[in-house]
Amino acid sequence: MDGERLAQKAFLLAAVLSASVTVLLLAFMVILGLPLFQGGLVFRILTAPWLPGRQLFGIWPMIVGTLAIAALALAVAFPLSLGVSSLIAVVAPGRIARLVKSAVAFMTGIPTVVYGFVGVFLLVPLVRETFARGSGLCVLTAGLVLGILVAPTMILFFSDALARVPRSDRIAAEALGATPAQVLIYVLIPGAWRGIVTGLVLAAGRAVGDTLLALMLAGNAAQVPGGVLDSARTLTAHIALVIASDFDSLEFKTLFACGILLYAFTAAATLAVRRLAGKEGPAR
Amino acid sequence: MKQPPLDAVVRLASWGSTLLLLSLVATVIGFLAFKGAGSFSLELVFGDTPPLEALLLRRPVFGGLLPAIVGTVSLVVLAISLAVPLGLAAGIYMAEYGRGRIQQALGLFFDILAGVPSIVVGLFGFSVAVFLHRHFGGRIYPCLLISALSLAFLVLPYLIRTTQNALEALPEAVRLTAPALGATRLQNIRFVLLPRALPGILSGVILAIGRCAEDTAVIMLTGVVASAGLPRSLFSAYEALPFYIYYISSQYRDPAELATGYAAALILLAICAMLFAAAALIRQRLGARSHQRL
Amino acid sequence: MKTGLWFKAAAVVIMVGLAALPASADSLAAFKGQKGEVRISGGTAHIPVMEEAAKRIRTANPDVQISIAGGGSGVGIKQAGEGLVDIGNSGRKPTDEEVSKYGLKVFRWALDGVGIVVHPDNPVQSLGKDRLKQIYAGTIDNWKALGGPDKAINLYTRDEASGTRDVFWSKALDKGEIHARANVVPSNGAMKTAVANDPYAIGYVSVGHIDATVAPVALDGVVPTIETVKSGAYPVSRGLFSLTKGEPQGLARWFIDYLFSPAGHEIIADKGFIPVD
Q1: What is the DSSP letter of C175?
Q2: How far apart are CA B224 and CA B67, in angstroms?
Q3: Is C167 in contact with C114 (CB distance < 8 Å)?
Q4: How many CB atoms lie within 10 A of CB C270?
Q5: Hey, are the CB atoms on A11 and B89 less than 8 Å from each other?
Q6: A154-183: per-residue pLDDT in tens?
Q7: Domains, chain A, ranges and CATH?
Q8: Do B141 and C69 touch (CB under 8 A)?
Q9: CA distance B89 to B79
Q10: What's chain A's average pLDDT?
């Protein structure tokens, strides 16, 4: 059966080819960014400020900017998502839950650029007028919109995890006279912690990896933000802004440091998720 | 009967966050609809060019969305047709052939790839374009093909996983019947498993289309431009809807141009919503059928 | 002899007429029957002129494709030098090093200025150079200190690839500091939009881009307008350049020729710049 063997080889080839893209991405960035790894330059780049006028091309401000905006997004989205998934799992199961769940699933399909566009014309002026400080292009604005962007990821994971808690646990608690809220807090949420952490980690990966919202809403100042109303630049936005520089310059090489950092962060998140989910890997 | 306070708090919190989230989404959509609906007209798409002339490629369109719409459609078609054969084949391998360590390792790679931020894929695409330009006679630029290739990489792991999941979800009975009747493994895959898994795969493909259509970060590094007219070849620069929306948001010149931005956002949202609905419908059918089987 | 002279004179007249014809009567004629693509990127001040020129050329001949991207002057110079585009635009003069490294050919087709702009509602519409420097260095950070409202000053600047930034930085700030707090926008269009939408903003933009949505700020008493740039009274002026790697060929050549034609001059003037030969 030669056709059989050929087909099997072809399928294997496709799988290996696809997997090699993962390696290729990293390898390309490492090779092109190679000069960075000589003479401890990489440490200076990771810790220095970005002052091109003084030939300082550090990406520390962008690292802080990324973490600040992502952390704010998660801080906004986490309680919101927990609330929504509790509604789906416990408070209003049945038709309402199904309706809410489809709405949340639909949210995953809303283009990022659409959120960004509405953010620019609705939230930026609002933040500027409300706080009467700064231009409205800041960590807060970007973090809030990013929170809405990543919330569906969390909600879908949380509600699945809550639903997967064994029915017997739930029934046992109810038999002991626990109210639905007590069941949620003492049985379901502890029982679903793996799924909840998984959702959180995945959302963190998405928040760190998003380019457009920060680029459109955070102001892009290459400084370490001192507060949520300060302008900031993320690693992703930095790549989009500096891509235009000379390919051979140190300035351009730092992009690969940004790229490798982003790659490493999201790869670590993926590994964490796989570990949490056990051997079968996350269902995406 | 008086409810315990804990229940009240939980109720309030969960209803509160749900209503908040839904009203935020409603605000986003309502705001766009309110601002953008007024500017829908033939002129929005075709500018001051007569639509028929534009569609017959007799006259170029200026100031209309046609080049961006056509650009996005060509980009999606190209990216998907690059990614689907590879993704399908790899997914079949993962579900039907892969075993043990190798399969696990491959799965790890796909998961990592799925998590890589799109701007990193864009940076890769850009670097590849520059590399090819330098080493192959300067004929390759950031262009439609480079963007499509990068987007294909972006959705590849997603396609592999949906194909794999769709195949693995098939009941044992379906899986074993044909081989019992003497079908080979390949015949079983081709004539039984794939057709049965098709709805699941298809809904995955549709969602991948949505991702290609909405992605902005990859294309802004790999060849999309502010103004190019209709794309004429794989190697030309092009316009695209999401980039147009981004571009207009920061540099519209007058309220009329801004209005086209709102309209473009609304169009893109509608496209993505339709794709989403299509995928959901297929899934629902699939769900209904598997229920029947039980 | 006499007839010979007449003959020569007539020949000269005809030749001059022929030479002038493509430029004056119809400079679009060069594109007739042509096919292919012109790739343009770089300076964002140039974009309105590029788009209008592209529109007219493509209306006359739809088979010519013209793609226009921004990115800033740095991008225009680098990408033209690397051969990634046919024409790179720059709002600053490329350095001698850049010209010799890439073998660039430089075409200066307009005179422009870089004007300071604020929101139209801002009462502060005149600044001394020292004050401007202090504002951008961050030592003056409230409009109140300048006779405006008690609001923080929102600084806007451009990314490092920008020629507008380069000219502003060297000629208006005398290479003084630009505070890292400043919001960074990617183009002249984006700068104008940002300032038009932020009542407490200060930014700088190509004079050709200044319109009623923003208010120009007089620098040492001179308001940035096309007239003051032209007369030399406004000091922060610059040329708008298009660059090609070596002598431009084919479509790129004709595109640049078109910018220098009467029709091109009309477009340039219409978009708020001063055409130069």
Answers
A1: T
A2: 11
A3: yes
A4: 13
A5: yes
A6: 999 999 999 999 989 889 998 998 888 888
A7: 60-278 (1.10.3720.10)
A8: no
A9: 16
A10: 90
Residue type present at position B122: G
Rounded Cα distance, C44 and C68, in Å: 10
Chain A CA closest to residue B106: A19
Question: What is the pLDDT confidence band of residue B55, given thresholds at 50, 70 and 90?
Answer: confident
C39 and B141 within 8 Å at the Cβ level: the answer is yes
Report the 3 state secondary structure along chain B. Answer: CCCCHHHHHHHHHHHHHHHHHHHHHHHHHHHHHHHHHHHCCHHHHHCCCCHHHHHCCCCCCCCCCHHHHHHHHHHHHHHHHHHHHHHHHHHHHHHHHCCHHHHHHHHHHHHHHHHCCHHHHHHHHHHHHHHHHHHCCCCCCCCHHHHHHHHHHHHHHHHHHHHHHHHHCCCHHHHHHHHHCCCCHHHHHHHHHHHHHHHHHHHHHHHHHHHHHHCCHHHHHHCECCECCCCCCCCCCECCHHHHHHHHHHHCCCHHHHHHHHHHHHHHHHHHHHHHHHHHHHHHHHHHHHHHHC
Contact status of B137 with chain C (Cβ, < 8 Å)? no
pLDDT digits (tens, 9 = 90+) for C153-206: 999 999 888 999 999 999 999 999 899 889 998 889 889 989 998 999 999 999
> By CA distance, what is B24's nearest residue in A?
A148
The position carrying tokens 């930034």 is C165
Q: What is the ipTM of this complex?
A: 0.92
Q: Do B60 and C187 touch (CB under 8 A)?
A: no
Distance CA B129, CA B122 (A): 10
Residue B93 in tokens: 């391998």
Neighbours of chain C (3+ CB pairs under 8 A): A, B
Rg (CA), chain A: 22
Q: Domains of chain B (ranges plus CATH)?
A: 69-253 (1.10.3720.10)
What CA–CA distance (Å, rounded) separates A263 from A257? 10
User: Nearest Cα to B245, choosing from B260, B261, B257?
Assistant: B261
Does residue A217 belong to the interface with chain C, where contact is any CB pair within 8 Å?
Answer: no
Residue B265 contacts A, CB cutoff 8 Å? yes
Whether B118 and A15 lie within 8 Å, measured CB to CB = no
- CA distance to partner chain C, nearest, from residue B58 (Å): 7
Q: Which two tokens stand for residue A256?
A: 């690969």
Q: Cβ C184–A49 below 8 Å, yes or no? A: no
